[in-house]
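Input chain follows. Return structure tokens only.
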Amino acid sequence: SARVLIVLDVSGSMSDEADPDTGETRLDLAKSAAIEALDQFKDEDEVGFRTFTTNADGTKVVIRDVVPIEPIGPNKEGLRREIGNQVPLYGTPLYQVTKTSFQEVLDGYDPDRINAVVLLTDGEQDDGNQSDDQSQQQAMLATLRETQGETGKPVRIFPIAFGKQADDDVLQTIAEATNSASYSAADPKTIDKVFTAVVSNF
């Protein structure tokens, strides 16, 4: 069984049109893929949902824990509704959300389950301040790496690079740091297949 935190980028670029035939945005496609993928979880699997962006002027990271990590059986409808309610907002504080989401799952680590973060983003690090990007990236990767072998508490991060602007290299590095694999939906219309492939790990 699994204990999984689904982390969804709700930055402004998620409002870009992804399917010219239907007029659906990136966020529309990502939401329906995530909602569909919930059916693959078993009732006793624990699944949480959080979103990330910044405030309007990019000075503050905004991470919202929409649904806590808990058994999905009784919560599936609520989860579906909450995912469906998301709207695109502002910037993409990728490094900070990766680090805090990893820490969150590690803090509640369950040795009898697969412990994982599914991280969907369509962009690269953009939190309004480039001067500390490198140190943030190093701090994030150090946190991910140091807990893998030593603590015996493997938490895997499965990043999904969504659309062509996503930072494939960084997402691959994040996956490698947690002995995991990154996934790519460069064509946003493939996101439901990709999401299904990620959840099949659990």
